[in-house]
Amino acid sequence: MASRGQRQLIPESRARLQDLKYEIAAEFGLPVYNPQYAHIQPKADSEFAAELGELAGTGNVEWRDLTSRQNGSVGGEITKRLVQSAERSLSEFGTL
Asked: Which family does it belong to (predicted)?
């Protein structure tokens, strides 16, 4: 999210970052409610979990209900993947 006084360079990036956040949370097994998939199953935490039927009895929660460590691990993984993606892009152009 852009801070005050800063403009977002690529507005479409917000949606991709949200998708990435929920994807990583699902990979880590965090039962976070994702409103994007509410039409698949009420309080579904991800598309993959809904397809696999792993939602029964998980008790999906909001981000605010997770621990700082859990939220931090998701943020850290997002950063790690973004850096890896940037490094791949730079290496394709031969500048890294």
From this structure: Belongs to the alpha/beta-type SASP family.
pLDDT at 44: 45
pTM: 0.66
Closest CA to 47 of 24, 30, 25, 23: 23
Q: Which string of b and e fits 68-93 if b means at least 16 CB within 10 Å? A: eebbebbeebeeeeeeeeeeeeeeee
**For residue range 18-52, what is the model confidence (pLDDT) as tens digits?**
889 999 998 998 988 877 766 554 444 445 554 54
- Identify whether the C-beta of residue 81 lies closer than 8 Å to the C-beta of residue 20: yes
- C-alpha to C-alpha distance for 81 and 79, rounded to whole angstroms: 5
Q: Are 62 and 25 in contact (CB under 8 A)?
A: no
